[in-house]
Amino acid sequence: MELRIREAKPDEHELLTKISFAAKRYWDYPREYFDIWKDELTISEEYIRDNVVFVAKTKSRVSAYYSIVHVEQEFFAGDTKVEKGYWLEHMFVLPEHIGKGVGAAMYLHARQYCRDNGIDALMIFADPNAKGFYEKMGAQYIEERPSGIAGRSVSLFIDML
């Protein structure tokens, strides 16, 4: 599969939002989760301009994206502490490309971007369905943290680059 990774363009925000929702729907989450995730999964033009966002194109179609954000001051999102540093905030792949190496290529690209830009650690809150992926990619599991949904947790990983 031919794959090209490039910086996202602000006018691709709606497309990236569709990829976010499609990727989450792949895991058959309850409909009410999407109401909670609506703001988190919606990508704006400003978000793309203000953060590191890359897309993967397979053939002539954008099929995945990732974003890295710099958290300058630790804060709490609900009951979850978000430490200062660099975070892989989003990494979503269209369902028809899951399991075909697109996510791995994107993750390796993100790691190289970090190395090239003096970032020595990348933190990740992984969806439960992505935990095995990050372990396979070499990120170190730290602990479970509560998510914004009662009774659900996310896995905290760190990748020392």
Architecture overview:
The protein has 161 residues and is of the alpha+beta class. The protein has one domain: 3-Layer(aba) Sandwich (Aminopeptidase), CATH 3.40.630.30. The chain is built from 5 helices and 9 strands, in the order βαααβββββαβαββ. It has helices at 13-26, 31-41, 45-50, 102-116, 131-136, and strands at residues 3-7, 52-58, 61-71, 75-77, 80-82, 85-93, 121-126, 140-146, 153-160. The strands form 2 sheets. A 7-stranded mixed β-sheet has the order 1-2-3-6-7-9-8. Strands 4-5 form a two-stranded antiparallel ribbon. Strand 6, helix 4 and strand 7 form a beta-alpha-beta unit. The longest helix is centred in the C-terminal third of the chain and has 15 residues, at 102-116. The mean pLDDT is 96.
From the structure above, extract its key features:
161 residues, Aminopeptidase, seven-stranded mixed beta sheet, two-stranded antiparallel ribbon, 5 helices, 9 strands, 32% helix, globular
Shape type: globular
Which stretches of 5+ consecutive residues score pLDDT under 50? Answer: none
Question: Which fold name corresponds to the CATH topology?
Answer: Aminopeptidase
Structural class: alpha+beta
Mean pLDDT: 96
Q: List the secondary-structure elements in sequence, H or E.
A: EHHHEEEEEHEHEE
> Can you list the strand order of the major beta sheet?
1-2-3-6-7-9-8
